[in-house]
Amino acid sequence: MLARVRRIAGQVSAVERQLAGDADCSETLQLVASVRGAVGSLMEELIEQHMREHVARPGLTDEARAAASEEMLTLIRRYGK
Fold this sequence. Notes:
The chain is an all-alpha fold. It has one domain (about 1-80): Metal-sensitive repressor, helix protomer (Methane Monooxygenase Hydroxylase, Chain G, domain 1, Up-down Bundle). The protein contains three helices and no strands. It starts with a helix and ends with a helix.
């Protein structure tokens, strides 16, 4: 997961360089779209990890599952805005 975050950081740096230079708008927009896709993929991976660890893991109490589910729903709502 850290490798994914580092790739995103590299993509964001590339966007910064494009904006600081005299880059073509369409190239910059393509880079931003790539960043958005990469962040979306990271979010999906984090959601999956959270669900497996804090909702679906055997041995959790019903209260722990419910709390983790509510926490995830709150985050998804926030992310979706």
